[in-house]
From TrEMBL:
GO terms for biological process: L-phenylalanine catabolic process. Its cofactor is Fe(2+). One of its GO terms (molecular function) is phenylalanine 4-monooxygenase activity. InterPro entries: ArAA_hydroxylase (IPR001273), ArAA_hydroxylase_Fe/CU_BS (IPR018301), ArAA_hydroxylase_sf (IPR036951), Aro-AA_hydroxylase_C_sf (IPR036329), Aromatic-AA_hydroxylase_C (IPR019774), Phe-4-hydroxylase_mono (IPR005960). This is Phenylalanine-4-hydroxylase. CDD domains: pro_PheOH. It is an enzyme of class 1 (oxidoreductase). Pfam families: Biopterin_H. Pathway: Amino-acid degradation; L-phenylalanine degradation; acetoacetate and fumarate from L-phenylalanine: step 1/6. SUPFAM superfamilies: Aromatic aminoacid monoxygenases, catalytic and oligomerization domains.
Length: 293
């Protein structure tokens, strides 16, 4: 059942938001953003779904420095009615869902230090803004994120947050999409990670399977390594259709009788794009991409 929320940290509002305080970033922090931005935008050319690059342009994220959340929100608001708000770190599930359901994306405001360039526990501003925000300019994806938040609030009352979190993980964080017969990246955990943006698309190790809501809700995931399994959607519109128009309560009940699947498993109904060798499992431990979310 839904539990009482912990109180917000000192300096945060009741909904856990804080001011970004953009003026407090120093030159080294902006330089770190520029370095990550340059490295990732070069890497992603031709690998990421084109709407991601369009989102960077629409939001003027190509200009140097850590973006100002107020400016991003203004442009996003015009486009799809979304806003970006700063939070001190991970927020409780229910609040996270409430923000999404109200078309507010919560983002960390700190940036990783040079020693953490490829490994980070908590989502920083580069993961949250570069990874997540460009696709919020896409109408169907923007609606999907809101629907996910609404689904989260319902799941909270049904004891099903863990199942729903798998949906987020395998789409919003680590999703692949098919475009003109080729696979492209769109998940924020992949696109914000230098190593995983190669691994997810090109490495023979991980499975790449067609999206199937029930299947994905049964599949465990790892937070400390590259994924062993990626799920491929046909389009953002299709993803939205399969989630927004679905009452998940009967699915949660149905799944209670079924065993969880290991991410290395393949089952008979799977639509297999690539049957992974799984030979690189564990090689990237401590090198998670999103570095969790
Ligand atoms: N809080 N700031 C932040 N960012 C997240 O991605 C996040 C969170 N709280 C909960 C959460 N993610 C997930 O556990 C939910 O998707 C279930
Ligand atoms: Fe994330």
């Amino acid at each position: 059942m839904a539990q009482a929320l912990p109180p917000p940290p000192a300096g945060a509002a009741a909904d856990w938001t804080v001011p970004q305080e953009w003026h407090l970033y120093g030159a080294a922090e902006h330089a770190m953003w520029d370095r990550l931005f340059e490295r990732q935008s070069r890497m992603l050319r031709g690998r990421v779904v084109p709407e991601f690059i369009e989102g960077l342009d629409i939001l003027r994220m190509t200009k140097p420095g850590i973006p100002d959340f107020g400016e991003l929100s203004e442009r996003l608001m015009q486009r799809t009615g979304w806003q970006v708000v700063a939070v001190p770190g991970l927020v409780p599930d229910r609040l996270f869902f409430e923000h999404l359901a109200n078309r507010r994306f919560v983002a960390g405001r700190f940036i990783r230090s040079p020693g953490q360039i490829d490994y980070l526990q908590e989502p920083d501003v580069f993961h949250d803004i570069f990874g997540h925000v460009p696709l919020l300019t896409h109408p169907a994806f923007a609606d999907y994120m809101q629907a996910y938040g609404e689904g989260g609030l319902r799941a909270d009352g049904l004891g099903a947050i863990d199942r729903l979190a798998r949906l987020y993980w395998y789409t919003v964080e680590f999703g692949l999409i098919r475009r003109d017969g080729a696979l492209k990246l769109y998940g924020a955990g992949i696109v914000s990670s230098h190593g995983e943006s190669i691994f997810a698309l090109d490495d023979p190790s991980p499975h790449r399977l067609g999206f199937d809501l029930r299947r994905l809700m049964r599949t465990r995931y790892r937070i400390d390594d590259y994924q062993q399994c990626y799920f491929v959607i046909d389009s953002f519109e299709d993803l939205l259709r399969q989630t927004a128009e679905t009452d998940f309560a009967p699915i949660y009940r149905e799944l209670e009788g079924e065993a969880d699947l290991d991410p290395a498993e393949i089952v008979a109904q799977d639509r297999v794009f690539h049957w992974g060798t799984q030979h690189r499992v564990g090689e990237h431990s401590g090198n998670s991409a999103e570095e969790r979310s």
